[in-house]
Write the structure tokens for this entry.
Amino acid sequence: MSILLAEDKPTHRHFARQLLDEHFPAYGPVLEVAHGAAALQMVLTERPGRVVVYMDLPGMHGVEVVWQIWAHAPDMKLIFWAQFAYETCMRQTFRLIPPETVYGYLLKSASADQFVHTVRGVLIEEQCIIARDLHRAYVQATDRQTGLTDVEYEALVDIALGLTDQAIAHRRFLSRRGVTSRLHAL
């Protein structure tokens, strides 16, 4: 059994590696990669039992890496490691999580104790652990009183991109009337 650490920044990779080696030696060795495609390849060839993946990996975004990993190994225990609580990334990530999957979501600003707590909770105790700041941001974003539904959020993204009604219809597989209806409701 091994732990895959997918992180492109050497200082963060060293920080995580040191904590994993110190607190979880029985679950090692720790395999390291710095690119999204390398992380996916390592999972397919080495079959680590646990993965810590940075969400903004170069080459292949962490959301895509995780989606591919779970397509091949839906029971893989994963910890998402993010720099910031991006609403877009969180929405994409929470949409692709298979049922009954054990995972964690942690910010890089977390302390060493928080990192160890999350790793222990997810990888050993099989608990889903989401950092308080991330959970708060996600709840606020999806709260019907203060936030947006996924459909409303997508419409705002399309508007922000400057897409025409026709382009939105093509992108979202809708009729132009459907697009107009969504935009009017928003």
